[in-house]
From TrEMBL:
The chain crosses the membrane at residues 7-33, 39-61, 73-92, 98-116, 205-227, 239-259. This is Probable membrane transporter protein. It is found in: Cell membrane. Keywords: Cell membrane, Membrane, Transmembrane, Transmembrane helix, Transport. One of its GO terms (cellular component) is plasma membrane. It holds the Pfam family TauE. InterPro entries: TM_pro_TauE-like, TSUP. The keyword Transmembrane helix applies.
Length: 260
């Protein structure tokens, strides 16, 4: 077992990520991805992010098992599984620098899309949200996000925002949405964890970082669960997307500079 000061910095970022996870059922890995992979390296950061989630995901899965949209969960898993297998392969063939650029670009794009939707349209442009007509193109986009989310999750463990594009449209209730998303991660992250153990990337270094990060993640997770019914989710997510833009943009910029 080893210790680095970076373990504390990465753990502190987990408090923010797992607070969001406790509230919404997604977000902990993608929010912390830039810091986790930037400080620990992608080879250690990806299995770290996978294993850190499992104790909390299992806990919530057992606690809220009766409040899950099982039909939608089945669709998500079926659409994601092929991508997970492809993503697991890509993780081992893509260089760490390329992986960081991909993660940074993905996080930045997701943040910009959500900032436009949640901040610019309602607050700057004063555009009121209207009921949208569901078209075949929009349905295809949602299912495409599911498939791509599987690939991203299999490779980098940050497919949550893409998978959310489908789930947030299909599952309207806040608690049921969180619990359904949580069950997705129980299944997909367990698959990723088994694959990572078999490949040997779960090293003593990763376990040492987990020993420091788990207590901090627990603080964020249980605070998020406690405040689920009390906080204004829309305002909180606006802050989260701004944080995502900063950390994702920073990883993208620094990784590009390292390559160039």
């Amino acid at each position: 077992m080893t210790f680095e000061f970076n373990f504390i910095l990465v753990g502190l970022m987990q408090i923010i990520g797992f607070f969001v996870q406790g509230c919404t059922g997604f977000g902990c890995t993608v929010i912390a991805a830039a810091v986790t992979n930037g400080l620990l390296g992608t080879t250690a950061g990806v299995p770290y992010g996978t294993l850190l989630t499992l104790p909390f995901m299992y806990f919530l899965a057992i606690k809220a098992r009766k409040e899950v949209a099982w039909k939608d969960l089945g669709k998500i898993i079926l659409m994601c599984l092929p991508g997970i297998i492809i993503g697991n392969f890509l993780f081992y063939v893509i260089s760490p620098d390329v992986a960081k650029i991909c993660i940074g670009a993905m996080v930045t794009l997701i943040a910009l899309m959500n900032i436009y939707k949640c901040i610019i349209k309602p607050l700057v442009l004063k555009v009121e949200e209207e009921e949208e007509v569901d078209t075949p193109v929009k349905k295809a986009l949602r299912y495409g996000c599911l498939a791509l989310g599987g690939v991203v999750h299999g490779a980098f463990n940050i497919g949550g925002p893409l998978i959310t594009v489908y789930t947030i449209s299909a599952v309207k209730e806040k608690e049921k949405f969180r619990n359904t998303m949580n069950m997705v991660w129980v299944i997909l992250n367990t698959w990723n964890a088994i694959s990572q153990f078999r490949s040997g990337v779960v090293t003593p270094y990763v376990l040492s970082a987990l020993a420091v990060g788990l207590p901090m993640a627990a603080i964020g997770f249980f605070l998020g669960m406690a405040f689920l019914k009390k906080i204004n989710r829309e305002q909180f997510l606006r802050i989260v997307y701004c944080v995502l833009l900063f950390v994702g943009g920073n990883m993208l910029f620094t990784s590009l500079m390292a390559v160039l």
